Amino acid sequence: MKLYHYTDLNGLNGIVEHHSLWATNLYFLNDEEEMHHGLKAFENTLEHLKEDLSEKSIKILRDTLAGHRLFQARCNYNISFCQEPDLLSQWRGYGASQGVCLEFDKDELLEALDFGNATFFSGDVFYTKPDSTLEAKEEILTFLNNADFLKKKKSSVLHEFVGTAELINSLTPFFKHEGFRQESEFRIVIQQDIKSKAIKFRVNTHGLIPFIEIKAKSNTPYTGRLPLRGVKIGPCKNRCFVAEGIQFLLNSRGYKGIRHSFTETPFRA
């Protein structure tokens, strides 16, 4: 599966210079309802599970969700990718700063990134209305009816509590308001103890943005580099000049043989 990461030339420079990607705290992304939307979708779904689950299981889900709302959610960091390589809405976001689109293979990338002791999940984003429950219901029932989960649940009374927390942690970050559907987003969500990795900050027009740096492993076939497959250059005034600079950068940082291409979107940056 191919994944595409849109950024600008400054972002590209940082990525290949440090062989890393930045994971932004979910509370500081461009959707102001980030995380709240997933929690709300999960909570709304509980009212529609009475025919499928016992009262005890629903109570455990509800209690675990209530405990999850603040502390755990603030330890979620996200690296965003798109599943489309030449998307106008993304060029509009990065075009003014000379945008580029970086191509990766999903499996190669997940294998190459060093998450340390942190837990991570990856998957497509679910785009829903705030009161939607269908996607959450399907995911909840699939998890709770899994044969492995049922077996562990019978062997330990605590496993249902642990499994429910795992379910909420792995599901709620992937819900997003349907107004962002055009982004066609794929996410890598990293969940860590606040002390396990140094939190860094950058500044944008909205204020201070916390993030963590996820570097490439040193023991992969890419020997410390990210498994970058290609670079698509977005709308810009001087294509050849930008392309020459990108190739010079990639070669000087060990990313040799990386192909580049140009957007086919007729957008005037």
From TrEMBL:
InterPro entries: DUF2971. Pfam families: DUF2971 (PF11185). It comes from the Bacteria. This is DUF2971 domain-containing protein.
